[in-house]
Inverse folding.
């Protein structure tokens, strides 16, 4: 078991495309309880796309696809050091807050000639070589991954919890030699998300029913001044293995064992197929990349449906996943949930393990 005084997620919500979540009122009420008790939460902010990628980062601000996991790690540390409450927040109007040209310009974070999809294609080619795969095998596994995401997302549609329809046929055309449109993150979403994290003492003091424990969280990054020139290092994913191991040790569990035994949920980072492939192997869930399709017949690797179908609000997809994971754990019978974050082309990796806590 993880430490019983680990910080707790006591409320969270995600508003998608200006549709207000029913959970927002609960979070607002809990913040009022804190304010009435003269407790002011520390706020951690996930930077939006409008914040230039290379600009100086402000204190308590986080950037990259790993940012929500980094913020969660910081929140964990703050509460362990005596902070009573922390809010993690993001506001990313990617769909309506920018013109198409503005989005493309702000997303060109490496250079104007090469797209992020092309760079991930280059990274995937290195990965294919490392694992003695071929391009057709890689594309077949990518297709199996998307079908897995789609099966999960179809459940959201069936339960009237989906915010988007399934992609049209044009999304199944290749946009790079290795990736179809459906294999890539889709940024067309307006997202506002907020999560309230409190110490166990405050949870008890305010009489809040304990909800989700942050059992383990760890972020790792490789030292690089130019990701584009370090693809060979990134695609080994040693830093991802370390993040998984450290978070699992902190949670005092073997995550792959919990997952394969049906006691854990998972949200891999699904910006491009290479990333979930790397996670599944680095975690020990599989031993060889070619074992992924059989695994996918029995296990879902997302709770959201992934970053194409459920969309990808720039730096905040993992916050959306953390919020969804919290909801799924509270409503279901699984004890653990893992959320993966991937920053840039993969130089940053983050892992958060959440645990369903017993009620007070």
């Amino acid at each position: 078991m993880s430490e019983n005084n680990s910080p707790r997620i006591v409320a969270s919500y995600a508003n998608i495309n200006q549709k207000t979540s029913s959970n927002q009122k609960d979070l607002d009420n809990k913040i009022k309880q804190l304010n009435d008790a003269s407790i002011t939460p520390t706020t951690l902010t996930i930077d939006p796309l409008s914040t230039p990628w290379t600009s100086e980062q402000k204190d308590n601000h986080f950037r990259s696809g790993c940012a929500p996991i980094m913020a969660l790690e910081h929140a964990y540390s703050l509460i362990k050091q005596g902070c009573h409450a922390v809010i993690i927040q993001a506001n990313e109007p990617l769909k309506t807050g920018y013109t198409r040209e503005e989005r493309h310009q702000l997303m060109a974070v490496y250079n104007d000639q090469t797209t992020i999809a092309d760079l991930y294609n280059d990274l995937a080619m290195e990965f294919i070589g490392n694992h003695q795969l071929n391009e057709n095998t890689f594309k077949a596994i990518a297709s199996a991954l998307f079908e897995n995401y789609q099966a999960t997302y179809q459940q959201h549609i069936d339960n009237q919890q989906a915010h988007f329809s399934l992609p049209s046929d044009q999304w199944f055309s290749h946009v790079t030699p290795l990736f179809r449109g459906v294999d890539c993150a889709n940024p067309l979403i307006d997202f506002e998300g907020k999560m309230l994290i409190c110490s166990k003492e405050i949870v008890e003091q305010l009489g809040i029913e304990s909800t989700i424990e942050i059992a383990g969280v760890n972020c790792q990054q490789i030292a690089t001044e130019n990701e584009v020139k370090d693809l060979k290092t990134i695609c080994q994913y040693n830093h991802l293995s370390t993040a998984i191991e450290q978070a699992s040790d902190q949670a005092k569990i073997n995550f792959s064992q919990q997952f394969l035994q049906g006691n854990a949920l998972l949200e891999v980072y699904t910006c491009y197929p290479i990333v979930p492939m790397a996670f599944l192997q680095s975690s020990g869930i599989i031993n060889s990349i070619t074992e992924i399709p059989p695994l996918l017949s029995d296990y879902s690797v997302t709770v959201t449906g992934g970053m194409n179908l459920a969309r990808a609000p720039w730096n905040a997809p993992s916050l959306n996943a953390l919020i969804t994971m919290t909801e799924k754990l509270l409503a279901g019978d699984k004890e653990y949930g893992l959320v993966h974050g991937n920053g840039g082309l993969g130089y940053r990796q983050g892992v958060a393990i959440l645990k369903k806590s017993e009620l007070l």
Notes: Residues 38 and 356 are 28 Å apart (CA to CA). The first helix runs from residue 24 to 36. The chain has 13 helices and nine strands.
